[in-house]
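This section describes the prediction task in plain terms. A model, or a person checking by hand, is given the sequence of a single protein chain and must write out its three-dimensional structure as a string of tokens. No templates, partner chains or ligands are provided. The sample shown here is typical of the held-out split.
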Amino acid sequence: MVLYRRSRVPGGTYFFTVTLRDRHSTLLVDRVGELRQAFRSVLRERPFRIDAVVVLPEHFHAIWTLPPDDCDYSGRMRLLKSRFSQSIARAGVALPRNAKGEYALWQRRFWEHTIRDEADLERHVAYVHFNPVKHGLVKRVMDWPHSSFYQYVCRGMCAPDWAGRGIDGGDDDFGE
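The expected answer:
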């Protein structure tokens, strides 16, 4: 068995990709209210800052900054996944179960990257916000409703037409 090691930097900033097992599901956007509530619940119990986030049909990307003396993003992610799963199960959504009887909604692991510096943060925030265009869900970043992009626009950190018109003929070469 491969030993999987995660970076642990107290007070660090991290980029995440978290995915449902069913890559054809639309559950995250269909039940985005429950996902937002799960985020709020975890934030109340285990505070952290959400620097950027985008929710797509079957996965989400997020950038979190933890408190100065804390590096337990895995515990927060476990709580988030669990609270969302429990919430939608209580609402009557039929969820698959594994051999142990646990909900099998999420992929078991998630991808994490420790943000190294301001330039790395800017690249990852751009990746988060552009992701719906990359996946062909919208033609313009501003057209995707489940994103922190609107907060960036309201704070004057991005123009509403950031990244041009995407696949519509603007900045076609933007992306990874």
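For orientation: Residues 166-176 have pLDDT under 50 and may be disordered.
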